[in-house]
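Researcher: Next entry in the queue.
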Amino acid sequence: MKKSTLTLHEQFMREALKEAGRGFEKGEVPVGAIVVYRKKVIARAHNQTETLRDPTAHAEMIALTQASEALSQDKRDHRGSLEGATLYATMEPCPMCAGALVLAKVKEIIYGIADPKAGACGSLFNLVEDDRLNHRLAVRGGVLAEEARAFLQEFFRNLRKEKR
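Model: Structure for this entry, 164 residues:
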């Protein structure tokens, strides 16, 4: 049996890409996110803004809520902190999601494709590394970016065809 040549980050990003695929199938902008804690996936989500008719239902926001729930089970004093957790997202988080990452005290954000129009992890803004805030995250972008880009390109190509 051939040993996998994927890095740990790539393996986890593949899980986020699966979530993006689920969103794509439902007609959502195909962004997926997972939260990893102690090398275990504790949350997974895809965009659901159309499904839930909620502009805040981004994959990252849903995954953060799930992760906080997972870590607070059996801990009455847990206040939602995700210290030590890593969020994998197929696309660079927007300002809302980046702000939530800071507030949740996530350790690290790993993303696929950069978002020059709304990215808040270094592209347009850099909320997650801003020294003025009380928490900063490590950031790594470009992990399996081509796969993430392909989902988005196909989604928007199909959307343009529908509008013709």
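Model: The first strand starts at residue 32 and ends at 37.
Researcher: Noted, moving on.
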